[in-house]
Amino acid sequence: MDFTPARDTSMTTGLDQPQGQAKRISSERQMIAKLDPAELQDRYLRLYDDHLVLKQHARKQEDKIKKLATTLAKVIEDKKKSEAVPFGAKATIRDSEIENQLAEYRNKISELREQNKLLKQRLVVVQQQAQATQLKKSSSAYDGVSSRIDTGQPKRIPSPLLHNIRVVGPRDSFRTSGTTPRVNSGLLEEAQATNKQLNESLEKAHQQLNTYEQQVENLRQQLSQRDNDHEQNLLRLRSQAAGGDSRVNLQENIDMIRLQRDLRDKSDELRRLQTQCTNFESQNRSLQVTNAELLKEIDRLDRQIKDEQQRALQLRNELRNGSRSNTVVHELNLQIEDFRRECEALKEANRKIVDSAFNSDREREFREKERALRLQIAQLEATIKADLGERGNLLDRLTLEKNSNQRTDEEHRTMHLKYLEMKEKYDDLAEKMRFFEREGDINMREIEEALIILRQRKQRQEPNFDFLQKVDDEKGQNLNRRILELESQLAETTNELEKTRNLLLMQYKINRDYKLEVDCIQRKMDENQAEHSARVLESGQLLDIRAERIRKLEKSLKDVAYGTRQYRVQEQPAADGNLTNELIEDAIELERGQNLIEIHISRASFNERALEYFGKNNEPSTFCSIEFFEHELQMTPIIKGRTPEYNFTAQYIVNVDDFLLYYLQKEYTLIELHQTVGQSFQTVAACKLSLKELIEGNQGRLHGTAKLIASHQNNLDIGAFGVVEYWVRLRVPMEQAFRLLKEKMKAQGYLATTSRQSTKTSNDIEQRHDLDPNMNELTIAILN
């Protein structure tokens, strides 16, 4: 049987389908985006380790190919040398070659065994990882914690507790429980795929190991067969060579036969080595392809990790910048904490209400809470009024600012009018000066220079006309002074106008800031008012919800206290989601004042004397019977064996009254062991169960073992027959009922003692009255 490995095309089929690959890549990106960075890093490191292992495997394969090439070259050289070597040397060469091949095959077998061990270890690790991930996703940390309040949802119990359960009481209808769908995640699928690949590689390694072992066995058989043929040929040739002259021809024939056989063996071995070489080359190519795919996958994962890191940096920046969102989140967290505290308070209130049935302190607490909430509402209304008063003050300030703004606008308008008037005057004067300069074709500097020259001439030539020159000088000076005054007034007006403009701009900016501040305050006040109204509405809704809860709790408390509530007891499914006994109903309706008591018998174990009584070589067939209160006898199924496992549960629907409580406190439940003999049976042992601890503690559940005492007349000398394991459970705890029964019994005892004392006192009074006739008798009658 030749082992011809097929090329793995599972990695290359996706290359021919770009659409499928794109969908796969998108799904993988979505899956990776949902994963944690630590898990991505862990998977990257695992892929890197697998890549290193594949590299080592590829190097080993290359070394094997090199060794095979060297062996092939040696075989070819030996074949060439065998043509010129005598028969004895050829046999030694062939034996050494066979030994070398056997040594190589042994080395290969040891390497394959080591690879097999490594693959088995990896398979175990992958299976453990898959089981761990499946348990993390399917199980919960609070599966084993039972709820204190009956929510109507099915609960889980161990499957052995539901074997052979029988119900004594009314049955309504059968209900089938649905199976929960499986949740498959990407990590589980990847673990399953790797598990499948490891199984396939393990099977291939097993096949290679088997083929190598078969080849070694075949080579050993061929070697032994060759030795036998060689000896037979030698004997035959020796017998033929005894004839005499044909010895040389016979020797040549023998050499020819040996050479042909060696040539045929070498050709077969060469052909086998060529097939192995081709197989190893195909395996090497497939490993190179898978290695390239893994390198691409590692690069893609690196890019995805970088993208995720960039996204994480962006999210961190957004978290740094988003202070408002942080405040909102903080407020939401505070609300969540408030809701949690409220939930805890409601749970505590419910527990206290259930514990204390007739306690009136809860009403006072609820009234105090209601008073506190009303006080809180009044405080919120006061804050609303304060906010409204602050809003009125802000509006008054806004009107004052508007009035001041109007006054500044009017002042600005008057100053602007003055500025326009002064500008008109300045324009008139400038126009006159320009007209004078244009008509006279001179300017003021030339006039001043001309006047100065004329004044100097007159002073030199005509000293008698000094008064005229003085008059002209005075006129020029007056004109210059008037021009300078006008220029100074113009500069002052421009400065005043610039100051006024700056003041108006500043006032405009201040008014704009005030307006923005007023708008912000108005918006904030609207938001506060909306938030306050929402809080008031939410507080009202919470008060309504709390009042409704209080009403429901009071109603349920009254139902529990006065026995007007119907309990719905549901059977808990097994681990696989289905009930173990199909004859049991999914739910049992309990009427007012009823309860469900379950008695379960797990198994029985017998001692040596009991086994001697049954017979050491026999497998006794036994069953148990349960006698409880006023109900009929219940039988377990007949089990054959030395340690029978009955796994039987008897369910009793009982009325919770004084008789039942007295029975649970004082009486015993009888369990008898019977042995079947043909079609009849005989009672061999019995035990009594005390159910007093069931109502005094242990949360309505009792678990233990009881000694079976021999009861048959033939085995009374045995004494202790063995033990039986059992548990008893109350579906609805009766601590409150048992407490009320104790109080009732105590009150009855007090009443009895009081009545005895009163009768004794009345008898003494009658005796004294008989002895003393002067004693008066006072009779008191209570009419209403």
UniProtKB/TrEMBL annotation:
What is the protein name given in its UniProt record? RPGR-interacting protein 1 first C2 domain-containing protein
Where is this chain primarily localised? other
Biased composition (Polar residues) is annotated at 7-20
PANTHER family recorded for this chain?
PROTEIN FANTOM-RELATED (PTHR14240:SF1), RETINITIS PIGMENTOSA GTPASE REGULATOR-INTERACTING PROTEIN (PTHR14240)
- Where does it localize? Cell projection, Cilium
Per the UniProt record, which residue ranges are transmembrane? none
Entry keyword set: Cell projection, Cilium, Coiled coil
* Matching InterPro entries: C2-C2_1 (IPR021656), C2_domain_sf (IPR035892), RPGRIP1_fam (IPR031139)
